[in-house]
């Protein structure tokens, strides 16, 4: 059996069993140590860091210490490239302080260790990712770009959530076909009888009676065709506003309030007006005698629409009367009838010698020619925060209040004081009375 180990006393007077631990020799540090002076935020006192960034250290009070002794190299072991790169020292015959290759870095070696130009130190002493006002290639994430002029006027490409409207709002008259055929038969019979009596008896009484009936009918139709848009706008303006709080499901209402964008805000194509719920751009051309028409329906000495793009998406409206917020379902291919008056943003006359570069870019992006033509570019939009009137059908689904397009066209009804026949409007109706006069017309 082995002998029992004795006991010993610790430095604090406590007696413990076992042999006292042998004091191991203190291992020499593997890397040279040096006192680091307090810089106080001064880069010139930072030693190696200042030399690495090219700071002149010739002036100022610095604490220079003699370099540590370099152990002689052993011929039996050659240093590898990995040892030079890592700068680590191993215990044993190679232990000791670092050699010259891994020692203090000189200005020349520091500049060759990093690729690219050296970033100067800011006057504050902070090392940043780049100087202020650097080019876009040296920018890092988190920097804000200043707003600049648009470099492209490409046509916006939206998904199915945005409705693309084609052409103007369709307004039509609805008259019973039976009544129309009966009227035409009576007119034809009256003309035949009148011509027969005129030839036989030589009395134009029947023809005068037929003309007395036809002339007022023709005048009424011409009046309704010319005054149709004004009559519809008057009807929409006089239609009473409804309160959403008391509206029942399926009721046709008119709601007036402030609009906010939905999940997809829109932007006008030329002026780049952001956060719109409705955006439209239309190019009109004037056709003189013998000129080329902008479309198939354009007549001489009139303006015709050559190009049009109109977009509308889902948005929210806050009712003025009840304060409730409703979702207006105008996207996903819904039928919408916007009555928004556009404003002229570009006016090109015959005296225009040089066109605006932005307008030329807008035309080229849409493959439109810019030859000698009298043109006007109009834009209309409903911006977020505008006061808008919406006419549609109320729908309630899982505590969500919505306004959707009606399933059937809306009739204005007969307005006998104005001699107006019923006019039908199809789709969700949008009106905005706010002026867009803040836009600047560019005469080119």
Automatic annotation (TrEMBL):
Annotated region (Disordered), positions in chain: 1-149
Keyword Protease appears in the UniProt entry: yes
Biased segments, Low complexity type: 98-119
Transmembrane segments: 178-199, 205-227
Skewed-composition ranges (Polar residues): 1-14, 77-97, 121-149
GO BP annotation list: proteolysis
Source organism superkingdom: Eukaryota
Gene Ontology molecular function: any one: peptidase activity
Keywords, comma-separated and alphabetical: Hydrolase, Membrane, Protease, Transmembrane, Transmembrane helix
InterPro entries according to UniProt: At1g16860-like
Designated name of the protein: Ubiquitin-specific protease family C19-related protein
UniProt source species: Perilla frutescens var. hirtella
């Amino acid at each position: 059996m082995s002998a029992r180990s004795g006991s010993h006393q610790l430095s604090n007077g406590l007696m413990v069993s076992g042999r006292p631990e042998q004091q191991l020799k203190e291992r020499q540090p593997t890397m040279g140590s040096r006192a680091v002076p307090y810089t106080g935020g001064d880069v010139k006192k930072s030693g190696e860091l200042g030399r690495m960034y090219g700071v002149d250290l010739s002036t100022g009070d610095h604490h220079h210490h003699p370099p540590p002794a370099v152990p002689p190299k052993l011929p039996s072991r050659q240093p590898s490239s990995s040892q030079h790169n890592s700068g680590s020292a191993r215990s044993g015959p190679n232990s000791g302080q670092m050699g010259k290759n891994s020692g203090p870095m000189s200005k020349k070696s520091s500049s060759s260790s990093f690729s690219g130009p050296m970033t100067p130190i800011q006057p504050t002493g902070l090392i940043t990712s780049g100087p202020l006002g650097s080019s876009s290639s040296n920018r890092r994430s988190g920097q804000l770009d200043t707003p600049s002029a648009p470099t492209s006027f490409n046509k916006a490409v939206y998904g199915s959530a945005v409705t693309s409207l084609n052409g103007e709002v369709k307004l039509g008259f609805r008259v019973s076909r039976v009544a129309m055929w009966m009227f035409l038969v009576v007119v034809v019979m009256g003309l035949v009888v009148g011509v027969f009596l005129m030839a036989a008896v030589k009395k134009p009484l029947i023809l005068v009676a037929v003309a007395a009936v036809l002339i007022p009918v023709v005048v009424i139709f011409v009046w309704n065709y010319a005054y149709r848009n004004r009559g519809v706008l008057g009807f929409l303006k006089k239609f009473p506003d409804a309160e959403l709080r008391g509206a029942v499901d399926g009721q046709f209402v008119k709601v007036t309030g402030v609009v906010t964008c939905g999940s997809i805000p829109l932007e006008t194509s030329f002026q780049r007006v952001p956060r719109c719920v409705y955006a439209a751009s239309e190019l009109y051309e004037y056709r003189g005698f013998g000129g080329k028409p902008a479309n198939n329906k354009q007549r001489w000495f009139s303006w015709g629409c050559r190009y049009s793009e109109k977009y509308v998406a889902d948005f929210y409206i806050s009712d003025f009367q009840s304060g409730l917020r409703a979702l207006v379902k105008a996207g996903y291919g819904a039928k919408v009838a916007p009555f928004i008056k556009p404003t002229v943003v570009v006016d090109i006359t015959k005296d225009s010698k040089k066109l605006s570069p932005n307008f030329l870019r807008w035309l080229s992006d849409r493959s439109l020619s810019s030859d000698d033509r009298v043109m006007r570019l109009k834009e209309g939009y409903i911006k977020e925060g505008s006061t808008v009137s919406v006419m549609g059908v109320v729908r309630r689904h899982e505590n969500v209040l919505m306004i959707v397009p009606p399933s059937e066209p809306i009739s204005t009804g007969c307005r006998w004081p104005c001699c107006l026949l019923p006019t039908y409007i199809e789709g969700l109706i949008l009106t905005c009375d706010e002026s867009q006069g803040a836009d600047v017309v560019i005469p080119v």
